C-alpha cells in the first residue's frame, strides 16, 4: 500500500444537501459513522461533509432556542446544507499514504475526502483506516518475525 487509492473506502453512505439533519443523524446511527460526504444531485459531485459534531451543534442550538419539544420537528425541517462544512480539505487517489496520514494526525479531521480532478467523490480516508493499516502491518511484522525465529 502506497497511495490513498490503496486504503480509501469507496462504498460510502452519502447524502444530498437537501437531506435533513434528522436524515443525517439516522444514517450515522444506522451505519455507526461520524462523517457523511454530501454530494450534488448527480450523486457524485462533492459538496461538503456533515459531521456528528455539526449535527450535535445544530441540535443544541435548536434545543436552546426552541426547547426539547421542538427538536425532532426542527431536525426534520433543517437541511444539512445549512450545517455542513463546505470548505473541506480534500485529496486525490494518487496522494502518498504518508502525506494523507500526516495530514490526519496533524489536523485531527474525521475524514479526508478523495476526489478526482473533476470534483467527483471517489472515496474517503479516515483515521480508523490508518489504525487498521497499522494493525495489519504490525500483525504481518509479527508473523514474519515468528517465521524467521522458527526456521533457525
TrEMBL record:
Residue ranges that the Swiss-Prot or TrEMBL entry lists as coiled coil: none
Database matches in Gene3D superfamilies: CBS-domain
Every CBS domain range: 8-65, 84-143
Superkingdom of source: Bacteria
Alphabetical list of SMART domains matching this protein: CBS
Keywords: CBS domain
A Pfam family the protein falls into: CBS
SUPFAM superfamilies assigned to the protein according to its UniProt record, in alphabetical order: CBS-domain pair
Protein name: CBS domain-containing protein
Species of origin: Pokkaliibacter plantistimulans
